[in-house]
Specification:
Length: 355
């Protein structure tokens, strides 16, 4: 080797441990909706990967292999198939019905949805329980509502999945999970199929509308900064910090037992987060038009209009006020009303019209 080449190797080796990752302070308040896997961190993924051939085939949404394994076809893929173990679960209590498409990287999301709808239909046909819950309390319906797969959700609902079933820890429904992750199409499907929009979680203090409003506020401010430079901008950041703490403390966050790609994987087709493409505002409008309670108070006594007003989200404030159902006389646990939360003159004037 030449001296210059050896010098280059030494430089690279010495600098490898000194690289400081870039800071993204402008993203500090981005919401963290439910990822779909308690093992999405790299150091935990290997222990949670499915180990039997059927689970592996479901995991990569291989329709042909699943079909072969279930019905014992011999097309040169396998030579023999052991009897199906309908009671088998992995380390965190997932059945094959929880796993479809969780290792998806190549196909588009709609294509994965079609594959998973077919696979879920086959699994249900041979006797797998569509209402089985993993150790964290997630059902297959929770998984695909989170991931935003409407065809798969529809198959489960038509196969007897409990539409308003709740997990034992937080009391969240599939509608709440689709709302948390900004999946408008799935949310609309669930409501059309009869999902109750006013079910509450977290001890009766949070509804699907609560989740939609919170994540829309956080998405709006995190992506545009609107309201931060205006009058009351400090209070906006304080609100976001408070909401983020609640999310991390379990009010929106969760122990999951489905799976998505690792959160920094840019190749993921499952876009879980508060990115611009999330449809929280449309979901809020959908929920409101479907009869959601616009006056539900959270554990601090805050209503959706209070959160929207403090964040300076004019469109959200206007949408809520136009329902004619907002009770502006409600005060929070500290005795403050909606008009006090309005930190900009424009928002105050909008509220005054309805007083």
């Amino acid at each position: 080797m030449t001296r210059s080449f050896l010098f280059l190797l030494l430089v690279l080796a010495s600098s490898a441990d000194d690289v400081t990752p870039p800071k993204f302070d402008h993203l500090k308040h981005v919401s963290r909706p439910e990822s779909a896997d308690p093992g999405h961190r790299p150091q935990h993924r290997s222990s949670l990967l499915p180990r039997d051939r059927l689970s592996e085939a479901v995991h990569i949404h291989d329709v042909k292999m699943v079909n072969s394994l279930i019905y014992n076809y011999n097309e040169g893929i396998i030579s023999a198939t052991p009897p199906l173990d309908l009671a088998r679960r992995d380390e965190i209590g997932r059945t094959p019905l929880h796993l479809c498409g969780l290792d998806a990287q190549v196909k588009s999301k709609p294509e994965i949805d079609i594959d998973c709808a077919r696979i879920v239909s086959m699994l249900k046909e041979v006797g797998f329980d569509v209402n089985a819950r993993c150790k964290a309390g997630w059902s297959p319906l929770d998984t695909y509502a989170t991931l935003g797969l409407p065809e798969t959700v529809n198959v489960l609902l038509n196969s007897g999945a409990e539409i308003d079933g709740t997990d034992p820890e937080h009391g969240r429904t599939a509608l709440m999970r689709s709302t948390i992750n900004g999946n408008f199409v799935v949310s609309k499907l669930l409501i059309e199929k009869g999902a109750e929009v006013n079910m509450v979680a977290e001890g009766g203090k949070v509804s699907a509308l609560s989740y939609a409003v919170r994540n829309e506020v956080m998405r709006k401010v995190a992506t545009s900064g609107e309201g931060v430079e205006e009058e009351g901008g400090g209070e906006v950041f304080n609100l976001l910090e408070m909401l983020e703490q609640e999310i991390e403390g379990g009010e929106v966050g969760d122990k999951q037992c489905s799976s998505n790609r690792e959160k920094n994987d840019k190749n993921s087709v499952f876009d879980l987060g508060c990115e611009p493409g999330k449809e929280y505002l449309r979901i809020t409008e959908l929920l409101v038009s479907s009869g959601a309670d616009v006056n539900l108070q959270d554990k601090n006594g805050r209503t959706p209009i209070m959160i929207a007003a403090l964040a300076g989200h004019k469109n959200l404030v206007q949408m809520l006020l136009k329902t004619g159902k907002v009770k502006l006389s409600i005060v929070d646990n500290d005795g403050f009303g909606s008009i006090t939360y309005a930190k900009t003159q424009e928002i105050r004037e909008m509220i005054v019209v309805y007083l």
